[in-house]
Amino acid sequence: MSTPSMTLFHSPSSPFVRKVMVLLHETGQLDRVATNTVTVSPVSPDSGLNQDNPAGKLPALRLADGSVLHDSRVILDYLDHQHTGTPLIPREVPARWRRLTLASLADAILDAAVLIRYETFLRPAEKHWDLWLENQQEKIERTLAYLERDGIKELSSSFDIAAISVACALGYLDFRMPTLGWRARQPQLAQWYAEVSQRPSLKATEPPTA
Fold this sequence. Notes:
Blueprint: E1 6-10, H1 15-27, E2 33-37, H2 47-50, E3 60-62, E4 68-70, H3 72-80, H4 95-122, H5 130-157, H6 161-176, H7 182-185, H8 187-196, H9 200-203
Parallel strand pairs: 1-2
Antiparallel strand pairs: 1-3, 3-4
């Protein structure tokens, strides 16, 4: 086993980190990346993470030359250029733009879900902004409906950046919003997720249950 040349700032509960870990599994690059687990929130930054990463975002990837990449989309694109297998982000257009658009929709689900998590977990109940929470949930539900209607065939065709991103988004909804009940409204998406969630890369990166 080779010595890792890169370090991933990591949290096992972060769906954005999970996307990166899934790609590392799928492309056989796990032994190239060491993980440095950090715990952060909007009110609890980490000084080590913030070094060369002023936004303090997870994940961040420190390369062998000491430079740091942050934002999961940037890291995924970088790592997808570091292996010799079939690219998980298509190089050719229009497939590239379509798959990245589907991945971006998954990120929109995650952004809204994380904001709901922060509002309901970090702020006292009497300070919750109900209309704001409702609007975030509507974003999630609109996007899930779109994926059910217009994305399911493409997601089923290849386990690439789009499928990885959507699978991690659905996993995060189950983790943080278990009462959402999305499966009843999106049965095709539910069936697809039941199948892909058995992939070793997704099994190995499941968020903690506690």
